Amino acid sequence: xDCPSTSIHAGIRTVWRVRGNRAxxxxxxxxxxxxxxxxxVMTNNNGQLQVNQKSVKLSWARSYEISTSGYSFRRSQxxxxxxxxxxxxxxxxxxxxxxxxxxxxxxxxFAEVWEYYTxxxxxxxxxxxxxxxxxxxxxxxxTTPRYVQSYEATQLSLVVNADTGAVVDxxxxxxxxxIRKAESFSFVxxxxxxxxxxxxxxxxxxxxxxxxxxxxxxxxxxxxQAVQYEIEENGVVKEPFxxxxxxxxxxxxxxxxxxxxxxxxxxxxxxxxxxxxxxxLLEKPVLTVTSxxxxxxxxxxxxxxxxxxQLQIDGGRQLNSGTSPHMCMKA
Length: 331
Description:
Blueprint: E1 5-9, E2 12-19, E3 22-27, E4 30-34, E5 41-45, E6 48-51, E7 54-55, E8 59-68, E9 71-80, E10 86-96, E11 100-110, E12 112-123, E13 131-135, E14 146-149, E15 157-161, E16 167-171, H1 176-179, E17 185-189, E18 205-211, E19 216-221, E20 228-233, E21 236-237, E22 245-248, E23 256-265, E24 268-269, E25 276-279, E26 287-292, E27 295-300, E28 309-312, E29 318-322, E30 326-330
Antiparallel strand pairs: 1-2, 2-3, 4-5, 5-6, 6-7, 8-9, 9-12, 10-11, 10-17, 11-15, 12-13, 12-14, 15-16, 18-19, 19-22, 20-21, 20-23, 23-24, 23-25, 26-27, 27-30, 28-29
């Protein structure tokens, strides 16, 4: 029978369950880990992990292939984890030969992962017929696919890039590159502890924006004591968000939008920041090209409010077409 117990630390709720002779930590809903200043926040929303609203898919795969005369070798490994099997989540910086430097990273430890591992090796000598040797046996000598338990390995950890939400590496001696020491990795946990919330947030500063034709990206400096942020767009307040950047999409081309941002925590909200106004670009033209003997004709739908057009070919110099929404060129 499962015997649950609960612990609360730094606003993160963790529920421990005992399954047979091993323990799992099922992360609770809401915030499950964060950087000390809450610029990066990992949440669990009904079994879906997110980092600053970016979905995290708990899977990783890597393949390797080499081929020379008379020899070929292929190896692939895929790993899948489940939220209910997470035992610990930490924030810090990660570096590995494979992933490079990930300045902001979450490393997620599991009590159990699902693994599929395959190797295919081909050898051919002289005039003899070549032979393929295929295997699904992993680095521990076990046939896959299978569930791998934490007691079998030094660790079972997926590394998440906190800026993108992508899983970038699998840390374990189950990983062939690490058990053979062909590659290296290191994780440095962020020192200190999560800042205690004692007052309402300060006002966010340095709000800046950039735009294309249908989207506007906002960035600002973190406000002390802020856990989340609310964005006001043309007088309409959007729900609280984690992180210090926000993208508003599906906007109208050539339209001015005004934004303000404020910090939020359980004790209240800050005053609004200074407003920033920005205008989306003109609608992006959609090109069609027709080819005839010795010439190409490029056409596009006229863009509202455009007073002239420029055409760029293969990244070269820009050609002016004046006010006409088409151009003919020699092929």
